[in-house]
Prior knowledge:
Blueprint (H helix, E strand, L loop, with lengths): L22 H27 L4 H28 L1 H23 L6
Helix pairs in contact: 1-2, 2-3
Amino acid sequence: xxxxxxxxxxxxxxxxxxxxxxxxxxxxxxxxxxxxxxxxxxxxxxxxxxxxxxxxxxxxxxxxxxxxxxxxxxxxxxxxxxxxxxxxxxxxxxxxxxxxxxxxxxxxxxx
Length: 111
């Protein structure tokens, strides 16, 4: 089902890094971690949507929401490690706030 995308759990050293990373290198590594959290959110959400079993749905949705918290933690850590990237994040957030404000003023969405 998932092919070669599965983690390499049989190798206990697969996740080891040969040296201490700089903050810049760690930020780069966190981008992959963030992508993994997003993939996990997508998969748990899809699995929850594909079942009518209320217990399975509730458990999968709870796990999905925990992954969302992990995503938030990693993005916050990323902002700390790479202040320049944090500025880009904030620029993007400001652009979205401006779009929302314009749509509210035009009456296209509620305030």
